[in-house]
Amino acid sequence: MTLVLLVRHGLTAVTGSVLSGRTPGVTLDERGVGQAQALAARLAPVPLDAIVSSPLERCAQTAGVIAHGRDQLAVQTDERLAEVMYGDWTNKPLKKLAAEPLWRVVQQHPSAVTFPGPGGESMPDMQHRAVAAVRDWNSRLGQDAVYLICSHGDVIKAIVSDALGLHLDQCQRIQADPCSLTVIRYTPLRPFLVRMNDTGGDVAGLIRRGPSHQGRRGQSDAAVGGGAGGGDPAGPGAGSTGGGSDGAGQDFTATDAGAREAVTADAQG
Asked: Is position 146 within any domain?
């Protein structure tokens, strides 16, 4: 089934201090370039059918580093994967925004938030466009595809919330660090969250293995009892969020590097 690698852009000079939003000219700093290079090296063994990016520079840069050396694979952009339109909050220091009454709503009830000012977007509208983009690319690339999306923290958290069947208000329980890797496997019945906020785990298990065999049983089934990870003895199509077969005859024996403990749920752009 379709395997989607979600990558947040690397660090910029203002990540974590200013809500950059869609401000043009915000690029990776030296740390961010190093993060992107390290992730590119880690993902080098994983064949990708496409790389899709938010049009903002920090994402396009990150995606470009990952695409470097992959012949015939140009980065494609999709506006629907762009950062939230934060309206009047754009370019404001996070410490200042934390004193705003709306800040607590963003933290506790993001589904009720529309950011103030001209062009301010609602969080539900952002989730709708981002999830629609993922579904469209899944359909376009096909069920055997493995592809990468480079986007932004809040956008990735909204996509993960949808994949887990969570209300958008729960998205602040999810962490997406700079240049982290989150992997979702989409099947006809349900998505599976394979790993989340991985900043250093082994990726060998993400490599597609074996021919595709359509119609194998249980392609959307979860492994009862948790499964055995890679080489699940339950057999083809047993499926597991921690590994096993993808149910279409391509084994994604991904090991979950685990999400690091969330320090804050604050949006950092």
From this structure: yes
